[in-house]
Write a structure and sequence with these properties.
By secondary structure, the chain is mainly α. The protein has helices spanning about 20-45, 50, 55-80, 85-95, 100-110, 115-130, 135-160, 180-200, 205-230, 235-260, 270-275, 280-285.
Length: about 290
């Protein structure tokens, strides 16, 4: 009689007690870092803008910016090369030196690397999400994505050519249309939103808030001059990008505040998702 097959032995289920001391230590450390970050964010949040009634006044300013942008876009569509643009670019490029050229090139580098730009946006959104600023995380991603789409659409309609090497020095030849500056739009969409959240959400002189404000302001301010210096865009391209992007951020901020007041994606009182993760099992069983 042939042998009957024996029943397969089922592996023992993994229980929290099976976690090694190293896993427990890592879990406790991870949970402590996240919880301290959330506590830090919660204690520094300020309701200044949420309780302010300046929203509709600011919307009027954003509408004015949109009108100015539309007028500028129409003008450069019919006048692609402006004498004032050529003069400004030549003034920027008059006193060239290695360190300034290196700085301007380095500032624009992120905008040339799509993977790096998207990576920064994803990282920032993830950090905001982890510290329980979920609506803010989504706002960062949406503003950046919409800005990229808007830039592409406007370029098609305006159809302005890039600066010509016969008129100014072009450090790096770039394809595509010139108005508005895509670098400026993407930088303001990302760094500008981070700067805005740093101002309206937090208070105090904590090092991370100061670093957020300084770094964000640096990129927002310097990216415009860098595009002119490198001969990649005219000054009116840069101006148009600032106008449309500030208006876009303002409108997005208004929508964000309305959603926030209505409790959309408001912070959790209990972060149950953390307690269900393996890396905090050791904490649960203490």
């Amino acid at each position: 009689m042939p042998d009957t097959p024996r029943e397969m032995e089922q592996p023992a289920a993994h229980t929290p007690d099976d976690d090694t001391p190293v896993e427990k230590s890592v879990g406790e450390g991870a949970q402590q870092v996240v919880q301290e970050a959330r506590k830090e964010v919660a204690t520094t949040r300020t309701p200044w803008l949420q309780t302010s009634k300046r929203g509709y006044f600011l919307l009027g300013i954003y509408a004015l910016l949109l009108v100015l942008f539309a007028l500028l876009a129409t003008f450069v569509h019919f006048h692609p090369v402006l004498g004032v643009d050529v003069t400004i670019t030549r003034e920027f490029q008059e006193n060239q030196n290695p360190w300034l050229s290196g700085l301007m090139t380095a500032v624009s580098y992120i905008g040339y690397q799509l993977w790096l730009s998207i990576g920064l946006v994803v990282l920032a959104a993830l950090i905001f999400w982890v510290v329980d600023l979920r609506l803010e995380a989504i706002t960062i991603a949406i503003v950046y994505s919409f800005s990229g789409i808007l830039d592409a659409v406007i370029k098609i309609f305006v159809g302005r050519p890039r600066p010509n090497a016969s008129l100014v020095e072009v450090f790096r030849t770039v394809s595509g249309q010139s108005f508005p500056s895509g670098h400026v739009m993407s930088y303001v969409a990302f760094w500008g939103v981070l700067f805005t959240f740093g101002v309206i959400l937090f208070n105090g002189l904590r090092w991370w808030r100061i670093a957020l404000l300084v770094v964000s302001a640096f990129f927002v301010v310097i990216i415009g001059p860098s595009r002119i210096y490198l001969g990649a865009h005219w000054a009116t391209d840069v101006l148009g990008a600032y106008l449309i992007e500030v208006a876009l951020i303002g409108i997005a901020l208004f929508i964000y505040l309305q959603l926030s007041k209505n409790g959309v994606l408001s912070p959790h009182r209990e972060h149950t998702w953390l307690s269900s993760r393996k890396f905090v099992r050791g904490v649960k069983n203490n």
